């Protein structure tokens, strides 16, 4: 509607709704406009308001309805609620700026201009088998002073590091969450160091349609949308795809003790999985569980992904704790989950990569059996554990290694999806870095303030003889060799490799394997490592280059199963003689191209 | 917020000098004054030396001008951009659409060379 803004929101159980308008940043509302009942269609209220200055207005809603927690209802008309579809969110414009805890409306819906000039940009649609993924945290990538960028810790800062990514050779970056979240959610002083601990990683969404404002250098000017779009455009121009780590399993509202920011006050029973007594199911381990297979919520998830694909040209998505997306409203795993199926067959998302973290905190572990519909790839957690165990010298790992380097046909051979079902990784944001994998036998999470109880215990790591960083050249040489072994296996494996930010230069977290709460050099990439560990960087770069020039490493079919592009031939310490016994710790292989069913050109690659 | 617009012609190119802050309040008026100038001429010099602040709404007028100019095979030169505005435009990808110069004189020279 020219000159007007159409405000619309739905709730199945609310009895009335009021639009609340603020001047930007003002403590009290500018106006409250109740929706006349004649403006309600079904469960949706809508109203066009004219003469609104896009830049000066923030908007929210009040909802009236029953307060009856046992029945799942928690309406409270004293709360001002964020639109679940808000395209931009104010209230946390500058990263780390302490919020006003008395603000009646801490996360504020804002209007955006949708006139970004994409020129001829579009998603790159690279074949999945050709990707080399680089997982990074937007702030930590350039926040360290050694990054020497004009806008540290922002989308703009990341943009200035594109030449580095290009030199390394990765062609897809996976951004840890960039949907608006609250850094101050559950912020608390560290009992050991006194330092404040934050929700630094953002695996806790406030708004699914809005980019994290505090990650934008231009956030204070309300231009975070443009800044992120420009980053995507520039990455695409340089041949690098952008994947988002999306967290649909829970929200920032926590359990019944958490704040009422949006969903809880709009329609608690629709948005959350509730026990028969009206408490929150906690399959996410974060207080609540989004009710993804309620049709209204399912539509929101689909709308959200379509929005990011169409409006931000995002190339793919990685779904945090994805198996929650396959549970019914009462938490039971569904045999044919409608949300996962909808996403797999959606026409807008048709060329987007869909990657599942195929487990959840409720005990479901579905690596290899995730309902994939021929579309979903998975973070291969088994690959991670198996390669770690092989590298530290566990017995009996050679046959397991053979499965891993073939993209785990033991897990994925059955589903006709081919090797790209497996996203191979040895490290990711959860757990040790690759350096720490060979510098620590045990986790050292004291700085997280939970007496070292948090974080995983099954790291399968080996400290090369001494716990922690030290000066012994022999140990350090061994560690570097182990890192190179790991990178070599990863980049020569069939399937899709993923590298964790900084592993190419030996980044350390000083033995901490769960650094979500640290906005300091435990997370920040120290760019001086690039000079200090230039050999590691060059090795990684060359291994990536090698992968790129050998199509056999990226073949679309599993090796040696049916009509296939290549055979794999195994060797041990002696040619043609692989040793599969429990005591064996060496394996080599040769890939041989097949032509029309005959052995043709040989192309040994490893 | 009052905003002043002065239009002149130098070497047959329209030069628009803007003075004042450009935000959501002043932007529509500014747009109404500048856009018609592109009806005849595809090329325009905007002297923004007197603009200490420009919000997103202001930047979007520039984008609109750019698109209008391109459709007439013209160009828009921006003279005297304040540093913060220039930086915001660079980070959000707006800046490269324009001929960015320090002064109107420089704009005239650059546009003639093109």
* CATH superfamily annotation of the largest domain in chain A: Glycosidases
Q: Based on the structure, what is the oligomeric state of the protein chains?
A: heterodimer
Number of strands of chain A: 25
| Low-confidence segments of chain B | none
CATH superfamily of chain B: STAS domain
Radius of gyration of chain A: 25 Å
Bulk shape of chain A: globular
Low-confidence stretches of chain A: 596-606
CATH class of chain B: Alpha Beta
**Residue-averaged pLDDT of chain B, rounded?**
92
Give the termini distance of chain B in whole angstroms. Answer: 36 Å
Main pleated-sheet profile of chain B: 5 strands, mixed
Largest interface (C-beta under 8 Å): A-B, 24 and 18 residues
How many domains comprise the coordinates of chain A? 3
Can you count the beta strands of chain B? 5
| CATH architecture label of the largest domain in chain A | Alpha-Beta Barrel
Report the β-strand fraction of chain A as a percent range: 15-25%
Tell me the CATH architecture of chain B: 2-Layer Sandwich
Describe the structure.
The complex is a heterodimer of chains A (606) and B (114). Chain A is of the alpha/beta class and 606 residues long. Chain A folds into 3 domains: 107 residues, Sandwich (Immunoglobulin-like); 427 residues, TIM Barrel, CATH 3.20.20.80; 37 residues, no CATH class. In chain A, 22% of the residues lie in helices and 18% in strands. Chain A contains 14 helices and 25 strands. In chain A, β4 and β5 form a beta hairpin. The longest helix of chain A has 20 residues. The C terminus of chain A is likely disordered. Chain B is α/β, with parallel strands linked by helices. Helices cover 41% and strands 25% of the residues of chain B. Chain B is built from 5 helices and 5 strands; from the N terminus they run ββααβαβαβα. In chain B, strands 1-2-3-4-5 form a 5-stranded mixed β-sheet, sandwiched between helices. In chain B, α1 packs parallel to α3. Chain B is globular and about 30 Å long. The model of chain B has no long low-confidence stretch (mean pLDDT 92). The chains are: A alpha/beta (606), B alpha/beta (114). The interface between A and B is medium-sized, with 24 and 18 residues.
């Amino acid at each position: 509607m020219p000159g007007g803004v159409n405000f619309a929101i739905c709730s199945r159980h609310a009895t009335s709704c009021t639009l609340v308008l603020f001047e930007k940043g003002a403590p009290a509302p500018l106006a409250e406009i109740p929706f006349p009942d004649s403006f309600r269609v079904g469960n949706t209220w809508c109203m066009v308001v004219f003469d609104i200055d896009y830049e000066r207005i923030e908007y929210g809603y009040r909802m009236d309805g029953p307060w009856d927690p046992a029945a799942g209802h928690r309406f409270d008309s004293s709360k001002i609620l964020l639109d679940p579809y808000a395209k931009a969110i104010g209230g946390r414009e500058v990263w780390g700026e302490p919020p006003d805890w008395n603000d009646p409306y801490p996360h504020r819906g804002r209007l955006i201009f949708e006139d970004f000039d994409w020129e001829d940009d579009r998603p790159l649609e690279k074949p999945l088998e050709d990707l080399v993924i680089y997982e990074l945290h937007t702030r930590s990538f350039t926040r360290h002073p050694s990054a020497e960028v004009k806008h540290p810790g922002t989308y703009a800062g990341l943009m200035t590091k594109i030449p580095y990514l290009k030199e390394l050779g990765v062609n897809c970056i996976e951004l840890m969450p960039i949907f608006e979240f609250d850094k101050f959610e559950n912020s608390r002083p560290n009992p050991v160091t006194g330092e404040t601990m934050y929700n630094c990683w953002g695996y806790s969404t406030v708004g699914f349609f809005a980019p994290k404002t505090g990650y934008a250098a231009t956030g204070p000017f309300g231009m975070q949308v443009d800044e992120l779009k420009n980053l995507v455009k520039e990455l695409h121009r340089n041949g690098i795809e952008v994947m988002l780590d999306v967290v649909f399993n829970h929200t920032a509202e926590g359990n019944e003790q958490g704040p009422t920011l949006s969903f809880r006050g709009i329609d608690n029973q629709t948005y959350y999985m509730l026990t028969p007594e009206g408490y929150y199911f906690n399959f996410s381990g974060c207080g609540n569980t989004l009710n993804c297979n309620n049709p209204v919520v399912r539509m929101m998830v689909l709308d959200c992904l379509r929005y990011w694909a169409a409006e931000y040209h995002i190339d793919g998505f990685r779904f945090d704790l994805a198996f929650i997306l396959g549970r019914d409203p009462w938490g039971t795993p569904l045999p044919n989950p409608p949300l996962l199926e909808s996403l797999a067959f959606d026409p807008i998302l048709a060329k987007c990569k869909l990657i599942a973290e195929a487990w959840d905190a409720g005990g479901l572990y579905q690596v290899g059996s995730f309902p994939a519909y021929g579309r979903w790839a998975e973070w291969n957690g088994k690959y991670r554990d198996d390669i770690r165990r092989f590298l530290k010298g566990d017995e009996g790992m050679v046959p397991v290694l053979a499965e891993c380097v073939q993209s785990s046909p033991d897990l994925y051979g059955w589903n006709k999806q081919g090797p790209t079902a497996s996203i191979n990784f040895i490290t990711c944001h959860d757990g040790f870095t690759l350096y720490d994998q060979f510098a620590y036998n045990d986790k050292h999470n004291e700085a997280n303030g939970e007496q070292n109880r948090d974080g995983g215990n099954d790291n399968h790591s080996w400290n090369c003889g001494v716990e922690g960083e030290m000066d012994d050249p022999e140990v350090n040489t061994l560690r570097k060799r182990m890192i190179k072994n790991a990178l070599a296996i990863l980049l020569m494996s069939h399937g899709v490799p993923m590298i964790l930010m900084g592993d190419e230069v030996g980044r350390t977290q000083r033995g901490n394997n769960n650094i979500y709460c640290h906005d300091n050099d435990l997370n920040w990439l120290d760019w001086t490592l690039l000079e200090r560990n230039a050999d590691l960087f060059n090795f990684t770069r060359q291994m990536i280059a090698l992968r790129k020039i050998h199509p056999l490493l990226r073949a679309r079919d599993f090796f040696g199963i049916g009509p296939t592009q290549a055979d794999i031939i195994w060797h041990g310490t002696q040619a043609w003689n692989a040793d599969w016994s429990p005591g064996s710790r060496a394996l080599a292989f040769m890939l041989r191209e097949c032509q029309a069913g005959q052995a043709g050109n040989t192309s040994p690659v490893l | 917020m009052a905003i002043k617009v002065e239009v002149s012609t130098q070497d047959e190119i329209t030069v628009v000098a803007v003075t004042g802050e450009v935000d959501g309040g002043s932007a529509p008026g500014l747009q109404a004054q500048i856009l018609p100038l592109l009806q005849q001429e595809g090329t325009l010099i905007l002297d923004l030396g007197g603009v200490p602040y420009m919000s997103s709404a202001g930047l979007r007028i520039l984008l609109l001008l750019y698109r209008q100019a391109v459709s007439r095979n013209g160009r828009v030169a921006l003279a005297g951009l304040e540093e913060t505005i220039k930086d915001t435009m660079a980070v959000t990808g707006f800046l490269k659409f324009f001929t960015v110069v320090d002064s109107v004189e420089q704009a005239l020279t650059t546009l003639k060379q093109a």
